[in-house]
Amino acid sequence: MSDSDTDDGESDRLGGPRLWILLRVNRWVLTTGILFAVFVVLVGASQLGLTPLRTIVENQDGLEFLFSAFIGAIITGTSIVVTINQLVLSQELGAVGEQRERMGEAMGFRQDTEDTIDEDASPPEPAAFLYELLDGVESRANELETEMEDERDEEVREKIADYVEDVTGNADEVKDDLEDAQFGTFEVIWAALEFNYSRKIYDARKIRADHEGSLSDEANEKLGHMIDTLKLFGPAREHFKTLYFQWELINLSRALLYIAVPALTVMAFMIMYIDASALPGTTLGVDNLVWLTSAGFVIGISPFVVFIVYILRIASVAKRTLAMGPFILRESQRDEDLG
Asked: For this UniProt entry, which segments traverse the membrane (predicted)?
């Protein structure tokens, strides 16, 4: 399996329908879609010839039993949200010495990056920073290809040419995605996931190890510069991923707090004012009580669905970025000669 094949597979996986739903779809659109599907299933179930809902409510007091359970669930979920907020905010609190140390480490990493990619001052925005870093990767790749023009070993020259083509092609695609990306949206993290730096570090080290005797000192040095530049992408992506997780958890907390009170109000309304005699008649062939109860149920589960769709994205990104550095966890990214 060639590296280009691996990249194509990576692009396919990143653009596959399952991951597109888990990662790319707007969280509110996905939430609305799930809730609508639940609503359709509940309304459709009333047409299956089962016991009519109005009969169940009249004989078993089903609405109070159903919706009273939501009260405790929503209040408990809101308490969990407060705990999540405390955990996220606790990472931002600290004495002045700790904050100064964090600042020093951040500036040190930025300075190391600027020295490696030959930039006077790297951009402060995450998308622009990654863009400049990928520019540096491309520059190192082009320098490596130029150094190999006079290489007599045709096999090595072809390997380097293929490697440079892979690196620059992947970097160009990611840079296109980063141009209009704004942190706070998922676009920055999505673009960062598309650049498989771990594989590129491995390929560069493999070339240097397999052809150490035939490579000139200058070519070895250029390969070293290439690896050093690629190694910066991992910490940068992990840092922005951590910031994005905090951003999303705060958004999740706010969303759940906004939804909790309206949902509790609807649950109270369903318990206090709706019984078997409410809204007699049908609409579109469906008992009006079914329409109302299904809508109430959907509103009741809405905080839980919002929680699910946000956590699904966070968990999916976390799983795809478990290993930082030259480690590849997914079986589909293994090469035949690994081991």
From this structure: 28-45, 65-84, 255-274, 289-312
CA distance 18 to 61: 41
Cβ partners under 8 Å of residue 205, min gap 6: 227, 326
* Rounded Cα distance, 329 and 339, in Å: 14
| Sole residue written with tokens 């090469």 | 335
d(CA 258, CA 81): 11
pLDDT tens for 268-301 read 999 988 888 888 998 999 999 999 999 999 999 9
Buried b (16+ CB within 10 A) or exposed e, 36-65: eebbeebbeebeeeeeebbebbeeeebbee
CA distance 70 to 62: 13
The pTM assigned to this predicted structure is: 0.80
Of 208, 76, 199, residue with least CA distance to 147: 208
Q: What are the extents of the domains in the chain?
A: 3-333
Which tokens is 45 given?
């179930």
pLDDT tens-digit readout, 326-339: 566 555 444 434 33
Note whether 236 and 113 are within 8 A (CB): yes
Token pair recorded at residue 292: 């109302």
Question: Which among 298, 270, 306, 292 is positioned nearest to 39, based on CA atoms?
Answer: 298
Closest CA to 199 of 174, 224, 225, 234: 234
> What does R_g of the chain's alpha carbons equal in angstroms?
27
3-class DSSP state of 149: helix
Distance CA 232, CA 226 (A): 10
